[in-house]
Design brief:
The protein is an all-alpha fold. It has 5 helices and no strands. The protein has one domain: Alpha Horseshoe (Serine Threonine Protein Phosphatase 5, Tetratricopeptide repeat).
Length: about 90
């Protein structure tokens, strides 16, 4: 199963439809790298940092050289580090 419909929905900003298409893909292939990466991108857009980080970690375990996943993970970590440092402990 391809994720063409998921990519189209993502490009249109329809994240709920994107997630539905991705769920169908992942039912048959739980480690479908492209689907996991797209789900991570959706969660990044929705600021669901932990969910994005979970998918990115799985991708990087399977494909350590995946630069897109590595870059997204780096951005998520920067955001989390910014939010959780002295921001709440002045």
């Amino acid at each position: 199963m391809t994720n063409t419909k998921a990519n189209e929905a993502f490009a249109q900003g329809n994240y709920s439809a994107t997630l539905k298409h991705i769920a169908r893909i992942l039912e048959s292939d739980p480690v479908h790298i492209d689907a996991l990466l797209l789900r991570a991108k959706v969660n990044f857009k929705l600021q669901n940092w932990q969910q994005a980080l979970n998918d990115l970690t799985i991708i990087l375990e399977k494909q350590p050289g995946n630069e897109v996943a590595r870059n997204y993970k780096s951005m998520v970590m920067e955001i989390l580090n910014f939010w959780h440092k002295e921001n709440y402990n002045p």
